[in-house]
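A quick aside before the break. I want you to see a complete sequence-to-structure record at least once, exactly as it would be stored in a machine-readable document. Don't worry about memorizing anything.
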Amino acid sequence: MLPIQRIHHVAIIVGNYDVSKHFYTKVLGFQIVQEIYREERQSYKLDLSVNGHYQIELFSFPDPPQRPSRPEARGLRHLAFEVFDVEATREILLEKGVICEAIRIDECTGKEFFFIEDPDGLPLEFYEA
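That is the input. The structure line, written in tokens, reads:
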């Protein structure tokens, strides 16, 4: 087995950088670690801290292609965040105007979870710790 410690970061290419930056920082509350504009690529790279540990990298590129289908296209199916209180998390998001799916129960673990979408339609899951 490889000596892998943990996931280092998740990279997401966004359709509208300003909208996604607002969503991930103001709605979800992630902290900006650094923001870089790469002139040669006409691309922003925004590093976000998730509770001081993990990073989400947001990238902007001119005219990125659409995801071919949802949710069963190849590639990232969804991004899941662990939370201690699923119901309270859902209420906070609803108060911020985010459309939230109903809370469901994982048939394998018995834990609660629900989904939202980011500004590009990427499924985001909030899963009970």
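Two observations worth writing down. The domain at 76-129 is CATH 3.10.180.10 (2,3-Dihydroxybiphenyl 1,2-Dioxygenase; domain 1). The mean pLDDT is 89. We'll return to this after the break.
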